[in-house]
Amino acid sequence: MKYKSVFDIIGPIMVGPSSSHTAGAARIGRVARKLFGKQPKRAEITFYGSFAKTYKGHGSDVATVAGILDFDTSDLRLKNSLVIAEKAGMEVSLTTSEILTEHPNTARIKLSDDQATIEVVGVSIGGGKIEVLEVNGFTLQLGFDSPTMLVLHEDRFGMIAAVAKVLTQHRINVGLMEVSRHDRGSRALMAIETDAPVSVEVLEEIRQIPYVFDVSLLSLN
Amino acid sequence: MFRNVAELVELAESQGKKISQVMIEAEMEVSQRSREAIMEEMYANLDVMEKAVRRGLTEDIRSHSGLTGGDAKKLQEYMKNKPFLSGPTLLNAVSMSVAVNEVNAAMGTIVATPTAGACGIVPGTLFAVSDKLQPSREDMVNYLFAAGAIGYCIANNAFISGAAGGCQAEVGSATAMAAAAIVEMAGGTPEESAQAVAIALKNMLGLVCDPVAGLVEVPCVKRNAMGAAIATVAADMALAGIKSVIPTDEVIEAMYRIGCAMPTTLKETAQGGLAATQTGRQIEAKIFGVRLDK
């Protein structure tokens, strides 16, 4: 079942005019922001397909920037996000691409400051629901319906078992899990949707596992 | 949990429950949240809908492009001053649905039901029918759960976005959702709600998504109006005991097949239908500064 909750149908509360082009765009921006973990200095946005063709009329650009500012889909500041970003010293660049993508509503967002960079590809699939297809070159297919933990680690045996062991000890059930890597033996990304919220303590415990580089937790609700 | 409308009706009737109650209990199970938490979230949606209806009926709404706004008020004025032909509940439903969709086009706050392009129909019919039936606030929230249950079945067995299945998937789904919820609020059975879904959706089959200049304005606002009208009439027909010859889930399946067969020019790409008319193209050129011969 693609749609799990009644609130996927009656909701979200949002600023108009389009659940795919406005609310969805805002959510893709917000996922990128949450993955980056702080306000970026630079935001480079590329729109593809229908996003590229109609973003002006739907406010997809302002919505995406609003998401990058960590605003919710219903935040009235959404409309003025470009001005707010400028005042906050965030440099925004927007380009459109003619490259054909699998889904018509696709956005690529690169966030950076002097220390870090993150690149996220998201698609807006309708009714405000989104999927994240790529994080820093790792391919995924996550809907962010539940809290999602991202574990960046070295690609070696026993990593999945080590993370699963910590979750077992804390009685946290895994709803969905994906593993992606650049090359065999290089860096890999484990994405885990959990039924119960994951506490800061559990995250820290996972961070302490040998060969784990970084752990982050994402929730859009 | 239920996977389609037949299972939903079966669950409701075998347990002597309303569709809305079945939806609330399913949501509790899936989300592992309390009834209170779920009700609270829906009350918040109801509040946003109420504000959008009020804004659209009282304020001077105008979209950024200038293409839409003010029609909801116009209809209310007409109802006050002229001997109008359709009934007051029907015209109120139309006017309130237009109000919400005009607020959406003007980048105001709305609830996607199931999408933003079709966001007027469920709240518009809800507040118009409530004027007539005087339900409790809890019954109004139950209306949204009943509508949500139908939307859930359609979304999981077909589609709810114009880009995926044309406007039949968007305004069509919202119309079917509203029809079922009206029946429940008016005291009809779950089976009668299902009949209203079939009757409403049958009359939306084949509806293309052809927004002028790609904006959620023309013809979206007026399609929300007609969706509200169809939902209200379909509910009355079902309450009168009229049945759809084709079962509800088969109508939903037909909608899915039609949507799959529809060319992409008619699925929210602004390349066909009303968007491709001479006036549609002129509007697009004016708003986006694009050439007419593209």
Automatic annotation (TrEMBL), chain A:
Output the Pfam families linked to this UniProt entry. ACT, SDH_beta
Q: What are the entry keywords? A: 4Fe-4S, Gluconeogenesis, Iron, Iron-sulfur, Lyase, Metal-binding
> Does this entry carry the keyword NADP?
no
Q: Which reaction does it catalyse?
A: L-serine = pyruvate + NH4(+)
Which cofactors go with this protein?
Answer: [4Fe-4S] cluster
Q: In which pathway does it act?
A: Carbohydrate biosynthesis; gluconeogenesis
The answer to whether UniProt assigns keyword Transmembrane to this entry is no
**Domain ACT, first and last residues per copy:** 148-220
Superkingdom is Bacteria
Q: Which InterPro entries match?
A: ACT-like_dom_sf (IPR045865), ACT_dom (IPR002912), ASB_dom_sf (IPR029009), Fe-S_L-Ser (IPR051318), Fe-S_L-Ser_bsu (IPR004643), Ser_deHydtase_bsu (IPR005131)
Which protein family is it in? Belongs to the iron-sulfur dependent L-serine dehydratase family.
Q: This protein is called what?
A: L-serine deaminase
Q: Supply the source organism for this entry.
A: Brevibacillus choshinensis
UniProtKB/TrEMBL annotation, chain B:
Cite the EC number.
4.3.1.17
According to its UniProt record, which reaction does this protein catalyse? L-serine = pyruvate + NH4(+)
> What PANTHER family does the record tag this protein with?
L-SERINE DEHYDRATASE (PTHR30182), L-SERINE DEHYDRATASE 1 (PTHR30182:SF1)
For activity, the cofactor(s) needed are: [4Fe-4S] cluster
Q: Tell me where in this chain the Serine dehydratase-like alpha subunit domain is found.
A: 15-275
Pathway of this protein? Carbohydrate biosynthesis; gluconeogenesis
What is the organism of origin for this protein?
A: Brevibacillus choshinensis
Q: Which UniProt keywords apply?
A: 4Fe-4S, Gluconeogenesis, Iron, Iron-sulfur, Lyase, Metal-binding
Could you confirm whether the keyword Zinc-finger appears in this record? Answer: no
Instruction: Kindly provide the name given to this protein in its UniProt entry.
Output: L-serine dehydratase
InterPro entries assigned = Fe-S_L-Ser, Ser_deHydtase-like_asu, Ser_deHydtase_asu
| Family per record | Belongs to the iron-sulfur dependent L-serine dehydratase family.
- The top EC class, named as a word, is lyase
